[in-house]
Structures are given as structure tokens and as C-alpha cells.
Amino acid sequence: MNHAPSRSAIDVIVHTGDAEWWQIVAALGPLVVLLVAAIGWFAQRRPTVADAVAFDAETIPASQSAWWSRARWALEASLDDDPAKREVGLAALELLNTSSISGKEETLIIAEAWRGPLRDRTATRVLADKNSFGEGNRQDRTRPEERVIVRAARLRLSTDRKQGIESPSWVKEIAKRPLDPKVSP
């Protein structure tokens, strides 16, 4: 006895017309599933904003953590009621802005410190006037509030330079003013 399967003919039908929409969607189904899976995988691997904002000592290098603690102190000092402390805070921020750790976002944060002292255009006009803050007037040159404005102008030059922005000429003039008659800016 021969148990071989019997041969039968298979009819093949070829359609020459356009495919229906549902046939196209059904044919692309596996490709869509792979695409959605790939997007999900990449989204899961990408760090979130919460990850970037979390200042965890284990995820931030020690130098960057130290930079941020100094920047925080300097920002707080730049807002203090004591003009001498504000001046030191602005000078510290200018130095911190030159650090390699300070990137675009850090520079934008630091730039907020000069806005307050330079916002009052009356104060900046007084400083820009050579009669008020000139060579022969030592008492005006060392006034604490004026020193804060000069430091703020120097900080603005630093942040503008790092951002590739041209500083206004009145800010440049104020930044040139000496803080001490024996020391140049």
C-alpha cells in the first residue's frame, strides 16, 4: 500500500486592479508595530527633565556640584541688602561665568543677577556721566551703590560675551570705571 498524498491542483488568482485601503493597512501592520516599538524603546532610554534637574551627588561630578553651590551663594549675595555683599556676589558670578562648567543655561541664570542693578536707567546715567563718577571725584568713585552698578556692568559684559551678544555702549562705559583709583578694571 502506497500512502503518498494525492496531488491536487492549486488555483492561483492574480488581481490586476488597485488594492483596497484595508489591504494596504493590513500589509503595513507589522511595519507599524516595529516602528511603535522602536519609538517606545528610545523614549524609555532618553533622560527626562526630572533626571536632568535632580542634583544628586551621585549623578553630578564633584566639580559641577561645587560650582553650583558657589553659584547659589553668589546669586543670594548679589540680592543682599548690603551693597558690599552684593558687590562680592556679582564679582563671584563674573568669575563663575568664565568657568568651563558654565554653559549656555548657567550663563542665562547668572545674567539675571545684573538685571536689577542695571535696570534703573537713572543710576546708570549718573555713572555714565564723567562729572559724577570721574577721575577727580574719589568719594563718588567708591560709593557702595555705584560699585555694585560697575560690578553689574562687568558681569553683563561677561555674560553677553559668552552668549555672543553685543553689549550696549553705555554698559561698556560703566564697566570701564575703576573701583579703586589704584587698580584698573
Considering the chains and any ligands shown, give keywords for the structure.
mainly alpha, 9 helices, 0% strand, rod-shaped
Overall, the morphology is: rod-shaped
Summed over residues and divided by their number, the pLDDT gives a mean of 77
| Helical coverage, percent range | 55-70%
SSE succession: HHHHHHHHH
Poorly predicted runs are: 134-142
Based on secondary structure, the structural category is: mainly alpha
Largest sheet report: none
What count of helical segments does DSSP give?
Answer: 9
Beta content: under 5%
Distance between the termini: 111 Å
The Rg value, from CA coordinates, equals 33 Å
Number of strands: 0
How would you describe this protein?
With 185 residues, this protein is mostly helical. The chain is 64% helix and 0% strand. The protein contains nine helices and no strands. Helix 6 (121-128) crosses helix 9 (169-176). The longest helix is centred in the first third of the chain and has 25 residues, at 21-45. It is rod-shaped. The termini are far apart.
